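User: I'm curious whether this sequence folds into something compact or stays loose and floppy. Could you predict its structure so I can see for myself?
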Amino acid sequence: MDESRRRFLAAAGAGIASLAGCTAPRNGPASGGEPFVDLYESVSPAVVRLRVYDSLGVLAEGSGWLYDDDVLVTNDHVVAGAETVRAQFANGDWVRAEVLGSDPYSDLAALSVDPPNGAAGLPLLDEQPAVGTRVAAVGAPLGLEGSLTSGVVSGVNRTISSVRNFTISGAVQTDAAVNPGNSGGPLLTLDGEVAGVITQAGAENIGFAISPALTERVIPALVETGTFEHSYLGVRILPVTPLLAEANGLESARGVYVAAVPTGSPADGVLQGGTESVTVEGSPQPTGGDVIVALDGRRVDTTGQLGTYLALETSPGDTVSVTVIRDGERRTVDVTLGTRPDPR
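Assistant: Here's the prediction. I'll summarize afterward.
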């Protein structure tokens, strides 16, 4: 991090290096009560402000939350490059936290911590929240610990690009106004269940959180081994647009187009990448590649559905049946999945 950036963070009073966050829900209280007051009182002991240091001083700030009695969850990008991490609990106590493991592909990290009395883990929602569900983002935006913003789930099963430029599937969208420093904090239902781990803001009134399902897969592995192995199909893909569908003689614009199959990848010799291109309405379109329309018999219409299935339903070493349209014919082939290469 250059010196000018450090001066900016110091001037902000927060030492924030992360640009991630989520947007904040704006619904009022339910009739007959103040549900967000009750929610905050019940969950605030489990939510922390994180301050991350390297050899030159404050590197970043963010948020986190207790997954169980001694494990904190936050974002990978919050603790990347950390030499020391400190967590501030709702009672004001600062304690040291140790990074147990982190995963840049899901933007999740697990930390070991000794919390104060009365701080207990928050449960993860066991399914994707419904669009319209009232939620709250609790954390430390701009270093302001103990902050809550409220709103709704605006969308689910979003495919987003992480702060470190990796694709994350199945993300939860919210209108909760999230700011730098909210990264890693919980997006909570009114029942106090974690509906997602805040990762970034997309635009005004649009923010994103990592799904509870992906969090539940990744965090236990980070605690146990320090890493998480993601399934790897080994293809370069494109969405099937109307123009691409026309160029390849498809009946409808659905599925996932295989643009290329790198040599030595799990799909090498099994799936077929594009070989040529044609121009449709003035736009060059690739042709000759397989179009994936199902995995293990489950329909695949979008790149997001493909990514979500691989992330949540498979593991490296699994053999999946891939149904494709090739040269106008439908066929099914088997691919044994590899492990996604470590980007570091």
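Summary: Confidence is low (pLDDT under 50) at residues 1-32. Residues 212-225 form the longest helix (14 residues).
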